[in-house]
TrEMBL record, chain A:
InterPro entries, A to Z: 2-oxoacid:Fd_oxidoreductase (IPR051457), THDP-binding (IPR029061), TPP_enzyme_TPP-bd (IPR011766)
Annotated SUPFAM superfamilies: Thiamin diphosphate-binding fold (THDP-binding)
Gene source species: Geovibrio thiophilus
One GO BP: cellular respiration
UniProt GO MF annotations: oxidoreductase activity, acting on the aldehyde or oxo group of donors, iron-sulfur protein as acceptor; thiamine pyrophosphate binding
Domain Thiamine pyrophosphate enzyme TPP-binding: 66-209
Keywords: Oxidoreductase
Name under which the protein is recorded: 2-oxoglutarate oxidoreductase
UniProtKB/TrEMBL annotation, chain B:
Species for this entry: Geovibrio thiophilus
Ranges where the Pyruvate flavodoxin/ferredoxin oxidoreductase pyrimidine binding domain occurs: 16-186
Keywords: Oxidoreductase
Protein name: 3-methyl-2-oxobutanoate dehydrogenase subunit VorB
InterPro entries: 2-oxoacid_oxidoreductase, PFOR_II, Pyrv_Fd/Flavodoxin_OxRdtase_N, THDP-binding, Transketo_C/PFOR_II
């Protein structure tokens, strides 16, 4: 009997503690598959965020360092600068990357650091119980926007993939969605390309993945996926915002 | 033949670090340590090593954290408000047991204060500064030569104990030029010491982290860190005692100690029995040595360029063996030897 489907070698056998219906597990898998397919597992150092992605070292069979909240791009910079031979990626939530860590991501991108950034946008702070994130949709209710996000007082959501795409030194910036199998396949290609770029020394690559947080959204997993497809994808268009190396691989 | 060269404190410390096998420097400009950053921006890339002018001190120290997690020798330098911003990552590095060297060329505070030499960050350096239960090794050199030697060795000490090590100087030390003998150049220190992150080739994956969620794990870890610091205190505590016969024992560190030393020398020429006790490591503080030295003193004077921070440690060490008096100079400036001499004379009665 031939094996048609198995766990990526880059992931451990541990059961994740993510909530049912959360996309974090899927996104872990996409990263693991990309590392496997590009044969990068043994040269990789991942940088974990503060947020629901904090336990990267439990789930990845790669070396991992755990960053203070938001600072992962700075750690990744330090690693890559002293060890350019390593593959370095950061894996960050939207609170981590677009709020407390906004300066670090902007500058790492703008220096064109040779790293890969996986950005999980679930429109709220998952780990701390569903507060407003910089990516919370206008009108979206969270524990700190009980009457819905009001852009006049809370500011407007940041579209990070577009912002990254506008920076000259960035070689690749894309937004993908983890909502349906077809979209996950597309997301996989973007993640793989972001690692391929690093493998080929092309520069800074950024992949934003629209993700669910059924627990804090107060939705069933099915409703949460529909929220991503209907509401999030409407505000955050999927696509490639910069590709300095030519079409999808 | 190695011969003495005239160098500014900041540049001399930077050169000593390069010679210690530094693989990366990450920093952000702040007076009075700008020569340090400028020196590194030229000399590190010239040797094919990493230099990044970070977007902030927060980023700089996190670059240090990341790079150090690979097992390389890396460092940053800054001054008081910049060090304040670094405390978050320093706490993480202590929790994760990652070695690095951090130089603080102190200026006057609180807040923006001024750019004059000050010792206002004693408590911040010796009491942790970031969140949680940790201590670091803190060297307080009082001459450029000593700063060079301590910095060069600080990398070995940091690696040995897997702990960040502080060099605590001030604007006077950073800005003054003195003749120094520079240490030998070591090859760049990279590679696997058995714990660093280098890609999980042919071995189990490693994690460098400070998170300890499982019940009892953090308690165990913090006790281990405390025990490690006990070992450090036993093996690495350094101090200087200038004389063996004295009535007044002056305690001071760094620049204040340098001035106090001149005062003590002048007084001894006049037949007044004073001596200087100078902690070289202000953390671990030389409690036992000072307790011993204080037994012979009629009075102890603490002279600091702040409102009385080391005073607390001195009192703990002296433990009532002699009365302790304090003189402070907290305005981003230094004492004159005459001021200290006058105070000692007054204490002698
Ligand atoms: C300096 C600091 N501030 C705040 C926190 C608390 N905190 C932990 S996770 C988190 C938000 C994480 O949200 P996000 O990055 O969106 O990731 P998610 O959990 O949604 O995946 C916050 C604010 C912290 N640990 N450190
Ligand atoms: S809180 Fe939200 S983001 Fe975190 S694991 Fe649960 S569903 Fe996922």
């Amino acid at each position: 009997m031939s094996i048609v489907f198995q766990k990526p070698e880059s992931l451990t056998d541990k059961t994740t503690i993510f909530c049912p219906g959360c996309s974090h597990g899927i996104i872990h898998r996409l990263v693991g598959e990309a590392l496997d397919e590009l044969e990068l597992r043994e040269t990789t150092v991942g940088v974990a965020p503060v947020g629901c992605g904090v336990l990267l070292y439990e789930y990845f069979r790669t070396d991992i360092v755990e960053a203070p909240h938001g600072r992962a791009p700075a750690l990744a910079t330090g690693i890559k600068r002293v060890r350019p031979d390593l593959t370095v990626f950061s894996y960050q939530g939207d609170g981590d990357l677009a709020s407390i860590g906004m300066a670090e991501i902007m500058h790492a991108a703008n220096r064109g650091e040779m790293i890969t950034v996986i950005f999980v946008n679930n429109a709220n702070y998952g780990m701390t119980g569903g507060q407003m994130a910089p990516t919370t949709l206008p009108g979206q209710k969270t524990t700190t926007t009980p009457t819905g996000r009001d852009c006049a007082t809370h500011g407007s959501p940041f579209r990070m993939a577009e912002i990254m795409g506008a920076l000259d030194p960035v070689v690749y910036s894309a937004r993908v969605s983890a909502a349906t199998p077809a979209k996950i396949m597309k997301a996989k290609r973007a993640v793989k390309k972001a690692f391929q770029n690093q493998k080929e020394n092309r520069g800074f690559s950024f992949v934003e993945v629209l993700s669910t947080c059924p627990t804090n959204w107060g939705m069933t997993p099915v409703d949460a996926v529909q929220f991503v497809e209907k509401d999030m994808e409407a505000y955050y268009p999927l696509g490639v915002f910069r590709d300095a190396c030519g079409g999808e691989k | 033949m190695n011969k003495k060269v005239l160098m500014k404190g900041n540049e001399a410390i930077a050169e000593a670090s390069v010679r210690a096998g530094l693989a990366g420097y990450f920093g952000y400009p702040i007076t009075p340590q700008n020569e340090f950053t400028a020196y590194m921006s030229y000399h590190m890339p010239a040797k094919g090593r990493a230099f990044v002018q970070a977007e902030s001190e927060v980023a700089a120290i996190n670059m240090v954290y990341g790079a150090a997690a690979t097992g390389c020798r890396v460092m940053t330098s800054s001054s008081s408000p910049g060090i304040a911003l670094m405390q978050e990552a320093i706490s993480y590095m202590c929790g994760a047991e990652v070695p690095a060297v951090i130089v603080n060329i102190m200026r006057g505070g609180p807040g923006l204060g001024n750019i004059g030499p000050s010792q206002g960050d004693y408590n911040q350096a010796t009491r942790g500064g970031g969140n949680g239960d940790y201590k670091m090794i803190v060297y307080a050199p009082s001459t450029v030569q000593e700063a060079v030697d301590l910095t060069y060795n600080a990398f070995d000490v940091a690696d040995k104990y897997k702990i960040p090590v502080f060099i605590l100087g001030d604007g006077a030390l950073g800005q003054m030029a003195e003749p120094v003998l520079l240490p030998e150049e070591k090859p760049v220190m990279k590679g696997d010491q058995g714990w660093g992150l280098s890609g999980a080739k042919g071995r189990e994956p490693r994690a460098v982290m400070s998170l300890r969620l499982a019940e009892g794990e953090l308690r165990k870890h913090n006790w281990n860190l405390a025990a490690k610091f006990e070992r450090i205190a036993e093996a690495e505590t350094k101090y200087e005692l200038t004389d063996t016969d004295y009535d007044v024992l002056v305690t001071a560190f760094g620049t204040a100690a340098r001035v106090a030393k001149t005062a003590v020398r002048q007084l001894r020429e006049q037949g007044i029995k004073a001596a200087l006790f100078r902690p070289v490591t202000i953390c671990p503080f030389p409690y036992a040595a000072l307790a011993d030295a204080a037994k012979q003193a009629k009075k102890v004077l603490v002279a600091e360029m702040n409102t009385g921070q080391m005073l607390f440690d001195v009192k703990v060490a002296v433990e009532g063996a002699a009365p302790v008096e304090f003189m402070g100079c907290p305005g981003g400036e230094s004492f004159s030897p005459e001021e200290i001499a006058a105070k000692i004379k007054e204490m002698q009665g």
